[in-house]
Amino acid sequence: MTQKKDQPTNPFLIEGYVSPEYFCDREQETALLTRHLTNGCNVALMAPRRIGKSGLVFNCFNQPLLRDAFHCIYIDIYETKNLDEFVYEFGKGILAELRPKGRKVWECLGDITRPDVTLDEIFAYLSQAEKPCLVAIDEFQTIANYPEKTVEAALRKRIQQCHNAHFVFSGSKRHMVAQMFTSPSRPFYNSSAIMGLEPIDRQAYLEFANRHLSRIGKEISPEAFCFLYEAYDGVTWYIQYVLNMLYSSHLAISTMMLYASRLAIFLFSLSFQ
What we know:
alpha/beta; Rossmann fold; five-stranded parallel sheet
């Protein structure tokens, strides 16, 4: 059988996004986030790491209603440590989507040694895009840890003045994100709709798993999947990791479940290091 161009070898993705076929459920969340964005609202999206925030954003950006009408831009700032690094990642993500063909990204901007000036240029670039922009900034709470203490105010001012773009501010540290968007003393107070993200419904996840496992003649029982789901507290990435191994392994599912229980202990121990 010839593999389709956008069809992965293993349907249980543990990184990246391909298409809705390989994205489990989240129908209500996708509809809500899409509705907020098409109504011109910024959104603060809060959920623990590995629960599927980025996947939800990409799934929304893949909806024809958004994909065809907007420039959709995703930027991950998790590794940034200061304003200079933020400006670099922010500008790189936006200009990679909007830059004229044949021009290198930073040919469109001035010297990054002046972050405040460069931010103005980036937002001016957003404002001049030929169609509206949707910008998702992942791990947005990171900016609160920068040594520069005016970053929130500087971004809030520019975002408020940029009428050609709407933003998704996603974060994995709920208390930090909540404070940024609900505390009257913070610049982003009352600036965005608040969305939380819970684990994927267990029954929907089971049906998704067996739909793809059936392609290779495998099936996971409700009892085995319940064990898997509970072992990882419904956290998407860990469940996908085990399902990915189930799909590619020649071992029986019962044997894989034994390995999964040991893996659960190991992976969760890593998450606290």
